[in-house]
Amino acid sequence: MILNASGCLDALTAPEVARSLDAFVTKTVTPLPRGGNDPVRIAETEHGMLNSIGLANPGIDVFASEHLPRLAELGVPVWVSVGGFEADDYAGICDVLDDRHEVAVVELNLSCPNVQEAAGTAAEIVAACRSRIWKPLYAKLSPAVPDLAAVAVAIAEAGADGLSLVNTIRGLALDERTLRPRLAPVTGGYSGPALKPIALAAVHACHAATGLPVVGMGGVATGRDALELIAAGATHVALGTVLFADPDAPARIRAELAAEAAALGFPDPADAHGVAHRLPSGHGVGPLEVPVAAP
């Protein structure tokens, strides 16, 4: 399944792009409205992009009453990204969303700058939400923690149904002429091609540690990128920065993914799931074990 990464697509202004996905993930919703950070909030870099939007959103009441019904008209499953600053914030939003038929999955954004990502804190948030909602709960994590696998295990034990890996990592871009920060908030979340090896490592570690379904994201621009995340353990793949430059990316990457998988001996891309965890058997050649001729 191909989704968008939260915050990388506004389905109400680009509905055709949203319909080309297998599910749409909303921008993060918080208990109260947030105007976000002052501009400049986005800066392109040589190998990606920095953003510091600041969780701008209308708040859960307006989102639930006005946005959700319109999103349901898209005809694709809706995943709602939920944010906050303490466990009760998340749990309160889950209360609102639990009986909303428009919501397929709730994704807990546990990696915003104002949420400490210690295993205990993340587990507390997940447990609070699990007690208030029966819908599937995915936890979105940042790789910028000492032991991401330990965090993943903690939230799995607290009741998470899946993981979204990875959120952006903090970065800084300086103006070429003034050497001052290009973003008004100084730093921002870094995304784009350079994030892929980090995402692969996170997906690989957390899949091995928990076995939970994983939405892999970070630097996906081609079908090969998507296939590598699946091989590392991702069940689904989300597109982020690529959507800003290529709104046709979902269809293109889906086709490329099928072609890349078939070229390596996998009739279905799902057949490549987790192959990065398999040790070579030494008993013949299988998918991804094609011998290379000597130069």
Q: What is this structure's SSE topology?
A:
Layout: E1 2-4, H1 15-19, E2 24-25, E3 42-45, E4 48-51, H2 60-72, E5 78-82, H3 87-97, E6 103-109, H4 119-130, E7 137-141, H5 148-157, E8 162-165, E9 169-172, E10 187-191, H6 196-210, E11 214-216, H7 223-232, E12 236-239, H8 242-245, H9 249-263
Parallel strand pairs: 1-12, 2-5, 5-6, 6-7, 7-8, 8-11, 11-12
Antiparallel strand pairs: 3-4, 4-10, 9-10
Helix pairs in contact: 3-4, 4-5, 5-6, 6-7, 7-9
What does this structure look like?
- The protein is of the alpha/beta class and 295 residues long.
- The protein has one domain: Aldolase class I (TIM Barrel).
- 32% of the residues lie in helices and 17% in strands.
- It has 9 helices and 12 strands.
- Strands 1-12-11-8-7-6-5-2 form an 8-stranded parallel beta sheet. Strands 3-4-10-9 form a 4-stranded antiparallel beta sheet, with no helix packed on it.
- Strand 6, helix 4 and strand 7 form a beta-alpha-beta unit.
- Helix 4 runs parallel beside helix 5.
CATH superfamily: Aldolase class I
In the residues, how many domains can be counted?
1
How is the biggest beta sheet arranged?
A: 8 strands, parallel
**CA-atom Rg in angstroms:** 19 Å
| Structural classification | alpha/beta
CATH class: Alpha Beta
Please trace the helix and strand order, writing H or E for each element: EHEEEHEHEHEHEEEHEHEHH
Mean pLDDT: 92
Tell me the strand percentage band: 15-25%
Percentage of helical residues?
Answer: 25-40%
